[in-house]
Amino acid sequence: TGSGDEMPNGGPEYIALRLDPEPGGEGLPLVDEKVPVTRLHGAIYRIEGSSAFGEVYLGDTVELEPLPDDAFRLVRVVERSGYRVHSVGISRAVAESEELARLCARVEDEGGAWERIMGGILIFHVPPQAALDLDPALKEIHRAVALRQESLPPESHPWWKVWTRFPGRTRRCA
Fold it and tell me: How confident is the model at residue 113 (pLDDT cuts 50, 70, 90)?
């Protein structure tokens, strides 16, 4: 395999996936993102954890090209995982809520998976046959968390300092 950090239990290895800007310099700056992969054969790998930048997702099969500096370039997605992928930004209060824990368990019970990246990005991978509509469930979780926060004094809210420093420019979000 190429360079990377192998996981101690013999699982996937973490590689530096090079995300190049689009031709003409528009788009993302040059970024290397650590992504767990399993080598299937030759230059073909299975992605074991989603890219935070949305290039590849859990379960995708991809072709990678090793680069001289030990990073890898995404040549192409050979096959998508087949999951319905749903990404959403969440607050710390939502991330730590019992309601979200129950929703994540439901996703797993349906044969899916979920990932939390950089603390506030939640990615659900739902099998196509699953009868699970995440939008209403997530709206209800945000509503329930917001109602709980409304019963707290304002200074206990994580947004309080930002709200008071920039009144009228910052909206409160659950």
Answer: very high
> Is residue 147 classed as helix, strand or coil in its secondary structure?
helix
pTM exceeds cut of 0.90: no
Chain centroid to CA 61: 17
| Nearest Cα residue to 75 out of 35, 19, 4, 29 | 19
Within the chain, strands assigned E span: 5-6, 13-19, 31-41, 44-47, 61-66, 72-79, 84-89, 113-117, 121-126
Q: What is the per-residue pLDDT for 55?
A: 81
Nearest alpha carbon to residue 123 among 102, 136, 109, 138: 138
Contact call for residues 66 and 108 (beta carbons, < 8 A): no
- The sign of the CA dihedral 126, 62, 13, 39 is positive
130 and 111 Cβ atoms separated by less than 8 Å: yes
Length of the chain: 174
The pLDDT-based confidence of 4 (bands split at 50, 70, 90) is very low
Integer-rounded Cα Rg, in Å, for the chain is: 19
